[in-house]
Amino acid sequence: MALAVVGLAADQGSKYGVFRWLYDGSFRGEREVVEGWFKLTAEFDDRVQPCDCSFHVLQTWSAPKMPRVNHGALFGLGGEHKGGANQVFAGVSILAAAGIIIWTARRATAADGWLCAALGLILGGTIGNLYDRIVFNGVRDFLYFYKIDWPVFNVADCCLVCGAGMLLLHAFVAPAASTPVPEGQAAAAVPAPAK
Q1: What is the per-residue pLDDT across 62-105, written as a single tens digit (0 to 9) for each?
Q2: Has 157 been annotated as catalytic?
Q3: Which of the 8 DSSP states describes residue 185?
Q4: Residue 112 a catalytic site member
Q5: What pTM was estimated for this model as a whole?
Q6: Which position among 24, 52, 132, 141 bears the catalytic label?
Q7: Residues paired with residue 45 on neighbouring β-strands, in sequence order
C-alpha cells in the first residue's frame, strides 16, 4: 500500500505542479525537456468554468482557468462522449480500486512482495486518475513524446502501465504455489498405470 501512496502523491504533485508552472495566462504552456523528442505541455480551456462547489479550490489551485482534460481512457478511448465516458471510467476505477484493496488484504498476496508492488502501482495510478475524474471531470495529461506523436499521458498512466506489466510478468514467472495437504489427511493415491 505504501507504493500506492507514493504513486498517488507523485501523480497529483506532478499534475498540480506542472500545470501551475506552465500557466502563463494563455491557452497552452509548454517546456522542452529533451530537444526534438519530449516536452511537458499543459492546456487550458476557457469554455469550461470552475464549479460553484467545494471542488472550486482544487480546480483552480494550478491556474484560474480549468485544464483541458481527457474524458476517455488510454489513447483517448471513449473521449468523444465526454461526461458519459468519464462517468463509466470513474465507475470502472472505483471497482478496480475496491478489487485491488480486497486482493491485497489476502494473506497470500501480502507475502508476495512482487505482487504487492504491482498492485500498489496499479492502485496508485487508478486513484490518481479517479481523483481527476471526480474533481476535473476528466484526466489531466502533460507528458508528451512528440517526436513519435505518442498520446499525451501522466504519472498515473505510468504507474498503471508499469504495474500491469509487473503483474503480467509475475503471472508467467512466479512459481506455482503447491497446495498444502490438510493435517491428518493423506495425499490421494495416484493409481498405477494399467499393464
Answers
A1: 999 999 999 877 655 554 556 678 899 999 999 999 999 999 99
A2: yes
A3: -
A4: no
A5: 0.83
A6: 141
A7: 66
